[in-house]
Structures are given as C-alpha cells and as structure tokens.
Amino acid sequence: MQVGSASRPRVHREVVAELARRIVSGEIAPGDGFPNTIQLSVDLGVSRSALREALKVLSAKGMLEVRPRTGTRVRPRDSWNLMDPELLSWCRPELDPELLRSLLECRLLIEPGAAALAAARANAAQLAGIEAAFDRMNKAADLNARIEADLEFHVAVLKASGNLFLAQWAGTVSSILLATFRISAEMTTSESDAFTAHRDVMESIRLRNASRADRAMRHLLSIAAKDLHIKAAQARSNR
C-alpha cells in the first residue's frame, strides 16, 4: 500500500506491534524461522523496507536473531529484554503462566521492602502522593480510573522508598502492572479486601511502621496473586 509521510510512524508502530504479538502469543515460537519477507510484507500490506525496519526493532529488543544465511529466527524468551516497557506492553500475563509467576515473584521480592523503606523515609509530599492515589481509587467513577489510581498508588510507594533503582523499576514495568491491575480489578469478589489492604499499606507507611508496612504489602500482593491465578486458569481453559 502507499503510505504518506505523515502516516509512516503509525504504520511502523503497527507493524512492530503485530509481529511482536505473533511472537509473544507463540504463533511464531522460539527457534522458528520467520516467514519469507516478500510474502510477509504482502500479508501485512506494507513495503519490504517497512518490514525490515520493524524486524530491526524486534532484534534490538532481543526477540529476533537475523543471520544472512539462515534467515530470521525467534530467540528464546530468556534472551528478550523483558525490562523494555514496550516489550512488556505486548505481553498478556493471564495467558502466560511463566511470565505471570515471574512477575508475581518479582513484585513480592521488591514491593514489601519498598513499603518498609517508604515507612522509614517518605517525606510529607510523598506521603501526600500515596494518600492522594488511595483517595482517587476510593472515588474512581469507573474501572479505568480505578486501575490508573491503583498504578499511581504502587508507583508512589516505590518512589517514596527513597531508592533510585526502585523508582525507575516502577516506570519500567508500569505497562504490565496495568495489565495485571485490570485483571485483579475485574475480579469483584476481592474488591473490598483489596481496598482494605491498600488502606493498611498506606496507614502503615503514614505511622512509620516499617514491619507492618512490609506485612501489609505482602497481604495486598497475595490478594492480587489469587485473582491473577483464577483469571489465568479461566483464560487458558477458554483458549
């Protein structure tokens, strides 16, 4: 198709996202060769140059290996740059047990400790940020607003830890956290429990009780983990 200069960036993003979706979903599995570029460009309705640029992007993210003689192949997932925000945005944790387990383990290792640090270090402005996010969760008019406020709450806690690496980690994984928060928010059976758990985290930090903040965050994450495992089981059974 003919692509105007103004639409080229949009087309480029769409091609990258579509190829990434095929890889992440397993439609093109690790070790598999990519389809012939001529046929693939026809299937996608884009030029071969646009396709080559998209392949370069995915190669830079560790998803593809391009060799002159053997062609383009999908690399094993442990070679992917899973800390790349864009790559994470393409993932669907409810359909990927290993990714879901890894994310939950990572959160359990990081967020309780961050909450404990926040209880010890948060300044007045950071405490106000945590409380404001909690208040937005409480007053959210719809699901999307509640999910956004939930993310703001967890990011605010991580930033209040006073640790530069934890603050940046929040930005890196925000896309996949949003996906998991959406799953949890849709599980209405635990909504009241999750709200109470968020409040306990906030109060523990406000009271400067580090050990209580650690326990409260662990409890909050256990609620999220339960919801995610239920949703994941449902999603896999419907495939």
From TrEMBL:
Residue span(s) of domain HTH gntR-type: 9-77
What's in the keyword line of the UniProt record? DNA-binding, Transcription, Transcription regulation
GO molecular function terms listed in the Swiss-Prot or TrEMBL record: DNA binding; DNA-binding transcription factor activity
Matching entries from InterPro entries are given as:
GntR_C, TF_FadR/GntR_C, Tscrpt_reg_HTH_GntR, WH-like_DNA-bd_sf, WH_DNA-bd_sf
Q: Cite the Gene3D superfamilies for this sequence.
A: GntR ligand-binding domain-like, Winged helix-like DNA-binding domain superfamily/Winged helix DNA-binding domain
What name is this protein filed under?
FadR family transcriptional regulator
Asked if Chloroplast is a keyword of the record, the answer is: no
Which species does the entry assign this protein to? Answer: Lichenicola cladoniae
Pfam short name (any one): FCD
